[in-house]
Amino acid sequence: MNRAPLTTKNLSIGYPGLPVLFDDLNLSLYKGKLVCFMGPNGIGKSTLIRTLAGMHHPLKGEVNGISNRNIAVVLTERVNAGMMTAKELVSFGRYPYLGWKIKMSASDISKIDEAVELVRIGELLDKPIYELSDGQMQMVMIARALAQDTPVLLLDEPTAHLDLNNRVEIMNLLRRLAKENDKAILVSTHELDLALQTADLVWLATPQKSVRIGIQEDLVLDGSFDQVFQFKGFDLKTGKVKQEPYRKTGIHLIGEGHAYLWTKNALERNGFHIEVAAKLKLGIKTNEEKTAFEIQIDSYREKFGSIEELLNFLSKY
After folding, report:
1. How confident is the model at residue 40 (pLDDT cuts 50, 70, 90)?
2. Residues 147-157, mean pLDDT to the nearest whole number
3. How far apart are CA 158 and CA 177, in angstroms?
4. Can you give the pLDDT at residue 243?
5. Closest Cα partner for 266 from 301, 305, 310?
6. Could you tell me if 145 and 114 are in contact, meaning their C-beta atoms sit under 8 angstroms apart?
7. Are strands 291-297 and 28-29 parallel, antiparallel or unpaired?
8. What's the pLDDT tens digit per position in 206-256?
9. Residue 43 pLDDT more than 70?
10. SS3 of 262, please?
11. What is the DSSP letter of 85?
């Protein structure tokens, strides 16, 4: 069985008369893998997605595996279809399998129902699509692609208009589909935090008109992400915005777990630096009900019930 239902050979893409976007790409999408495609704005990610889907002609080379029974696509453009309902739009995913009579079988209806349940859009089905928000429309388009039930899913910024809960849910759904339904899934995304936690593999678009491929941990550690994105004020290795301490006061922070991490974040964000040798000690104690904070400076001690109270006290230092 072919584990790579979509491949490219010496593929170059772009637009006639303009500089080439990507050159000489030899890529493979494998079943069971969620691949996140990342890179700076304007580098050509959407054009590559369209080329892989057969919607844009390559400058040279070839894409193997293009067909509407092999590839389902979700793009960022909003569909304008008058009074069509969300359910009717989802059902379009089954059209590649229908004959001239355009009659749905029980199997087709089952695939539509399964897609609706997976994306949890049952309450939207009877709404005309012009009434849907951008986020709701995106969910409906993902359901349409799932109803198509192809080995390959190509999605261009599928979480762009979604809130945090739905962004996480969609990325987890795509990961499950790759694993449980043995699909090859490529997602173009700017959601760096989600990609780092959910992708099986990363395609990293580089300024050298190539695509660097690897697992995200290796690409972080070898500096590939930093070279491509040239982060300003963000430390990818720690996953935090770099904070410059602007206070002279150091704090010896004592604690563990989530309370320690969030307290440290608040202190650094407010200009303090954490150091073991600091005269000012801050202890954190957590039980099942609440977290308490105790400041000790020489013989002086004071307790606080929240980080906000603690920061108000420390503001004079």
Report:
1. very high
2. 96
3. 15
4. 75
5. 310
6. no
7. unpaired
8. 999 999 999 999 998 898 998 898 887 777 777 777 778 889 889 999 999
9. yes
10. helix
11. B
Residue pair 90/143 in contact (Cβ under 8 Å)? The answer is yes
250 three-class SS? strand
Place of tokens 């202890």: 283
Q: What is the pLDDT of residues 130-140, one digit of tens each?
A: 999 888 999 99
Say if residues 122 and 153 touch (Cβ distance below 8 Å).
Answer: no
Query: What number does CATH give the domain 6-235?
Result: 3.40.50.300
The answer to whether the CB of 20 falls within 8 A of the CB of 209 is yes
| Mean pLDDT score, 248-272 | 92
Q: Is the pLDDT of residue 1 over 60?
A: no
**Amino acid at the residue 15:** Y
Strand partners, 304: 293
The set of residues, in sequence order, having a beta carbon less than 8 Å from that of 1 and lying 6+ positions away, is none
Indicate the burial class of 257 (C-beta count within 10 angstroms; 0-12, 13-18, 19 or more): exposed
Cβ pair 86, 129 in contact under 8 A: yes
DSSP for 94-143 reads GGGG--TT----HHHHHHHHHHHHHHT-GGGTTSBGGGS-HHHHHHHHHH
3-state class (DSSP) for residue 168: helix
User: CB count, 10 Å around CB of 256?
Assistant: 9
Cα separation, 213 vs 11, whole angstroms? 16
- Sequence-distant (≥ 6) Cβ neighbours of residue 253 within 8 angstroms: 260, 263, 264, 267, 274, 282, 284
User: Rounded to 5, what percent of the chain is helix, strand, coil?
Assistant: 35, 25, 40
Helix 134-148 / helix 106-119 crossing angle, nearest 10 deg: 140
Q: Which two tokens stand for residue 169?
A: 């849910």
Domain boundaries along the sequence of the chain: 6-235, 250-314
